[in-house]
Amino acid sequence: MKTIVQFLIFPGFLFTAVVGLIASWIDRKVTARVQWRVGPPWYQPFVDMVKLLGKETIIPKGTSAVTFLTAPLVGLASVTLISMLLWLTLLNPGKGFIGDLIVVLYLSVIPAVSIIIGGFASRNPLASLGASREMKLVLGYELPFVLALLVPVIKAGGSIRLDEIVASQMATGATATSLSGVLALIVAIMCMQAKLTLVPFDLPEAETELMGGAYIEYSGPPLAVYKLTKHMFMFALPIFLVMTFMGGFGPSPISLILGLLKYVALLVIIVLIRNTNPRVRIDQAVRFFWGPMTLFAIVAVALAFLGW
Amino acid sequence: MKALLKSPWVFHLSTGSCNNCDIEILDCLTPRFDIERFGMLLVGSARHADVLLVTGIMTRQSAPAAKRVYEQMAKPCVVVAIGSCSLGQGIFKGSYNAPIPVDEVLPVDAYIPGCPPKPEAMIAGVVKLIQKLQGAK
Ligand code: SF4
Fold it and tell me: Which of A32, A57, A208 sits opposite B36 (nearest CB)?
């Protein structure tokens, strides 16, 4: 019972959805300001959601309706679970379990998988193209992302428990204060950009060439679920990086506020990267991740082993 | 429906325009006019859209396609015809290639005249449409 409440309300679905939508507003507003525009009012993302929920759901002819409609839900559920795991660990220090870092790592691939399934299920050439790009992107960024996450693990003395990583950072300073930590953080931010499919790695949806890519056939409520997943991910993933690289935060008010400030800082970095870069091609993206990023991550891991 | 008026996502369909109207539509997104203030977004797929902006004379080739695009949109949705061409075939009147005006193919809700209409005119037209829909509610 308690778990269900935690999953659905706090710190699971409802909480993450509200904060995620606010984060997406920050994204749109900062984007607008960068482009010298005024931007939407703060309630815009909520209105968008309500509107999408009220619209017709179209299921394309010849698709498997079950796959088509459940694909978005899979992504939503996994993002909710990530956020719940992270917040429970943050709010009750010492209550993690061995390997929750790895659980979060696996869960964070599932939204991408749900986009792939949905894209291929919608029986549209552009959606298939988007889905196949997403697949290549996943292959690209997973390796450097895992390598980068090895650095905080090594710093915490080989622990793969999130609460121990946070605790060891509280004791000895954040991972990102060391050389290896900074390198790994840069790699992780790049991978996060790709995980959130934001420009310059928004190849799967590429509005101008693929017209929405994997989402092209979705309308109404399923589209709302996809959008919500993306916004919630935009909240959960930076929190994950704050925990592993930037010292995390605890349940006391001051450290909560500090933690949120760190989160907003990461969010603004993401938005600025997104606004100052053009979209890359898929081969460039994969080369970027397998080349310089993996190299960076390996160097960071080596430095971490040497104690820098 | 009320939420729709606050966040109309726009899909842009050219049925054989001279491309000038289309450029003026894009002008609405620029810092000077910034229709995102009203929650309007230009989306890439007809499935996501609430408003269909039609420009250009309905050519023989594009009429069936336009009809299909309209059918692909998730209802409820509205159609706005932009430019003299789509209103009354403009300078192409009597052309062998344009047998029917736009509003005989699609149920047009608002007409915005001009060749091309100014972005101000488009925004004014859309605001009028929103007021009309609010009154109808
Ligand atoms: S109304 Fe004028 S500007 Fe617009 S498409 Fe027609 S000819 Fe071009």
Answer: A32
Q: Three-class SS of residue A205? A: coil
Number of domains into which chain A is organized: 1
Q: At the topology level of CATH, where does B2-135 sit? A: Rossmann fold (3.40.50)
- Interface A-B: count of C-beta contacts within 8 A: 78
Can you tell me the ipTM of this complex? 0.74
User: Model pTM?
Assistant: 0.81
Neighbours of A50 (CB within 10 A): 16
Range of the domain at A234: 2-305
pLDDT in tens, A249-291: 766 777 778 878 888 888 888 888 887 777 777 778 888 888 8
Residues of B in contact with A214 (CB under 8 A): none
What are the angstrom distances between the C-alpha of B38 and each of A45, A223, B9, B123, B130? Answer: 12, 21, 10, 10, 11
Is the sign of the CA dihedral A165, A171, A176, A178 positive or negative? negative
- Report CA(B133)–ligand 1 centroid distance (Å): 27
Compare CB distances from A58 to B37, B39, B74 and report the shortest one's residue: B74
